[in-house]
Amino acid sequence: MSEFKTLFGLNEDQLKNTCILTPFFTKGMLDSFKVNETFHGTPYSCANSDNLTLIKTHVGAPFVGDAVLNLKNTYCSNIILFGSCGLVSETETLRIGSLVSPVKALELESFSQLLNYKIDKSRFTEAHNDLLEKLISISPANIETVLCASVGSIFLENEYKEFFLENNISALEMECSAFFNAAKHINRKAIALFYATDILGTNSPFDKPSEQVKIAIDNSIELAIKTIQLLADDLDKQANL
After folding, report:
1. Which residues, other chains included, contact 149 with Cβ-Cβ below 8 Å and sequence gap of 6+?
2. N or C: which end of the chain has fewer CB within 10 A?
């Protein structure tokens, strides 16, 4: 068995042109993406539909970054990071259930960096602009483009709210900067699409959501998956021209 198949459960030549990386499979996600069989590797799992490969990475920048680096010798040209995020604050356009796509991600992945206040507010990495524009134009939902910060601690992020606000950072998650950097390293187009589940200082990502919040999040996941499918269709057609 190849090293790649050991890691992912599929061979390199079985991956599609568009790969969706997600930290975990939410309830109903596989059905929504119209995949039947899941292939289990260690530590990743994969599932194919007609025009995309879904990859479960687990949570954390090292898992996501390594997953992207391992795509170097596959057919995958476009990579989308799909998952949840927190909001720094609620606004007229950003609330729980909002869909956001980062234009840039601030590199704050290190726990020690946050703990010791050794942060560099200039260290951003960027999404692929053309692919991001295609995502926005093709989506039936409203997607807000934002600056995000990829943080190495959910506990410590609470100490940086003023810093985030002062630097126009709207969303918080844990993998996007590693994801963008790894995609750039292997020369792939990469964007991220997140659904907001919590607001800094208001609720925790570990809180059990109310029924109203659960409905808002479920609806945003459904719209996000529909958007990703439309984008994958379009990218597949362009690749076969």
Report:
1. 105, 106, 108, 157, 160, 164, 169, 171, 172, 173
2. C
Q: How many CB atoms lie within 10 A of CB 89?
A: 13
Q: Which two tokens stand for residue 219?
A: 């609806």
Task: Decide: 193 and 227 in contact? Cβ < 8 Å.
Answer: yes
Both tokens of residue 57? Answer: 């990475």
> What integer best gives the mean pLDDT of the chain?
94
What's the pLDDT tens digit per position in 47-81?
999 899 999 999 999 999 999 999 999 999 999 99
